[in-house]
Amino acid sequence: MSTFRSFVIKENNGAIVKDVILENTENLPAGDVLIKVMYSTINSYDVLFSRENTSFRKNTYPYVPGVDAAGIVVESNSTHYREGDEVLIFGNGLGQDVPGGFGQFVRVPESWIVSLPTGLSMQDSMTLGSDGIAAAISVMEIMAAGIQTNSKEVIVGGSSYGIGAFAVSILALCGYNVTAVTKYMECEDFIYELGAKEVLSIDNFTDNSGKHLLEDKYVAGIDTLGGDVLDTMIRSVKGGSTIAVCGAVLSETFSSSLLPLILRGINLVGIDSLRCSHSLKREALYRLAGDWYLKTLSFMCNEISIFEINEYLDKMNNNLIKGRIVVNHKL
């Protein structure tokens, strides 16, 4: 039995309160493995779930966010994981169905766990988080569609943090020419450091002409924004292109023409890195630990303590962050 800190979101007389409280490991739900969390991260998903009126969150109050965690096994009923093993959890219900990585201990089923791969530190793994997994799966979908690199043009919607930032880096590493769309041109230099060949503001990219088909500039796209950006992307890609849709930072809806899908054979692929298969998640992670290891991780990582989570959730909800926010439970 151990006492530990948790960042909790709760309701008090109709008001939403976010606070750091003391908890006890005996109050954690049943599970195969008890893990001491060393690092977590504020993902795009955590930001969406923390909004009061979002359709994304299924939690009831109170709950402990943090869809990802990296830590050390301290108790185990599993035949696969033993005390002292360094392990990772990406989604699967962490921070939704059970208390998440914003607490210093979690207890989960063994099927949710992935061993920390050679080539990644715990800090690296949480700099990536489920956002990095989503970006990797998005690139895997583009490649699976037969869209080869060869300096082909790819468009990424949203690129200053989270999934979009990782998508820019992975695509550039793989040899694609990346055009990045951002609302925040003050992050332009940062996005070029990630590997973009061109950076466009949302206003310069989005098209409100009403045309069903625009010039087909791009062989593929990855979008994290939704709304008018996704609409313009659909109308701007070449025949047979794949667009991976993995975020809704600006809007949870979009309106577009069906003609690009019909006349150009455009494929829209939804990306869910939280509840996708364990094998797909593991494949993406091991690519990120190997050929797709990103040297940009070091300058993307910004560490905070558990006591700073509320401040940074607010900043991320207002798009005031670039790079990645990693929660270091040792601070």
UniProtKB/TrEMBL annotation:
Cross-referenced InterPro entries, in alphabetical order? Acrylyl-CoA_reductase_AcuI, ADH-like_C, ADH-like_N, GroES-like_sf, NAD(P)-bd_dom_sf, Zn-ADH-like_protein
Q: Where is the Alcohol dehydrogenase-like C-terminal domain?
A: 162-275
**Which Gene Ontology molecular-function terms are recorded?**
acryloyl-CoA reductase (NADPH) activity
The molecule here is called: Acrylyl-CoA reductase AcuI
Gene name per UniProt:
acuI
Entry-linked Pfam families? ADH_N, ADH_zinc_N
Q: What class of enzyme is it?
A: oxidoreductase
The UniProt keywords, alphabetically, are: Oxidoreductase
Domain Alcohol dehydrogenase-like N-terminal residues, every copy: 30-117
- EC assignment: 1.3.1.84
